[in-house]
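Reply to thread "Modeling small-molecule complexes from scratch"

Following up on the discussion above, here's a worked example others can learn from. I took a protein sequence and the SMILES for pyridoxal-5'-phosphate and predicted the complex. Inputs first:
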Amino acid sequence: MRPIRMVDLQQQYQKISSEIKEALSTIMENSTFIGGKPVDDFTNSFAKFHNAKHAIPCANGTDALQIAMMGLGLQPGDEVIAPSFTYVATTEVIALLHLQPVFVDVDPKTFCIYPEAIRKAITPKTKAIVPVHLYGHAAPMDEILEIARENNLFVIEDNAQATGCTYFSKDGIAHRTGTMGIVGCTSFFPSKNLGCYGDGGAMVTNDDSLADRLKMIANHGQKKRYYHELIGCNSRLDAMQAAILSIKLPLLDGYIESRRQAADYYDKGFSGNPKITTPYRAPYCKHVFHQYTLVLEDVDRNGLADYLAKQQIPSMIYYPVPAHRQQMFAAFGGSKFNLPVTDWLTERVISLPMHTELDHEQQDFIINHVLKYVNGNK
Ligand SMILES: *Cc1c(COP(=O)(O)O)cnc(C)c1O
């Protein structure tokens, strides 16, 4: 059996290595490392992939969120509603811009922000909602967009874990996640569903004037070189990363299919076990399984993780401390938020190896050992 990895990028690379080497070698020979055709080409195909008017590349997913909030003109003290059950970057940038993060609870089935909780959290200071399509499952966008419309709020989608996910809105139209809010933000961190070989990120939007501002902010607030209209930052996707992403983007739907098949196989293996809840799949979206995350009931989770590690099976807890309980948010009143579902999930979730290269032999091995421990037979 091949060694089991949480994410197997080596194996994935082997299948595209000659194309990648050729693309990188061309860039090195031309020595145009910043901007240029590779970046323009990827930007155009990424917008097209989303059926969106604009894509704006940047240095990473965290920057994408920050630039989006800057581009929307959010002001210090404005309140931004976001889940606490997410990677810290989502809410960190809110605080970084001197906005007030308002942490809300999630739905225990989808792991995504809970619309009723959003309604309760709205105040006259609320300016935006940041739904996170966590683990590759879309947040309930119809409800979120309706709340946003009623209350005149921006919706900034954190699509870092769900690039390529399809959402079917009530009117029957299929959308890629990241294209329904005013702006969608994603990350090309190597382990993400569409990952490059370093850091990278992007925003997508259908709003022309916002696209203009985002582009400027990512580039020191300038449109014309050395004429700076806005306070911005230096956030670029470099040419090598863009070239790698251009090779991988056409493969993304196939990568997603491999992840979905691996998820189906896990689901079958764990079905019927009363202590294990396998990932829910809402009919409104096509889960892209950035993570395959179980909810355990009545299982010593650390004991399971230790047992798996002894069998050379990696596992991860995403995330061991929810954002609102992180020390960094103490000054923002983080721990004052009462989020029972978030706390409940935080103690029970465990993510198993999930990537495009898993085979049945590996998955059988993982499933058998998880069941052995959970059923008390180890
Ligand atoms: C990865 C991730 C980010 C940040 O992306 P980086 O490229 O690492 O900066 C933001 N939000 C979520 C939900 C993520 O998973």
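What I'd highlight from this example: The longest strand covers residues 54-58. The chain has two domains: 9-103+114-250, 252-374. Questions welcome below.
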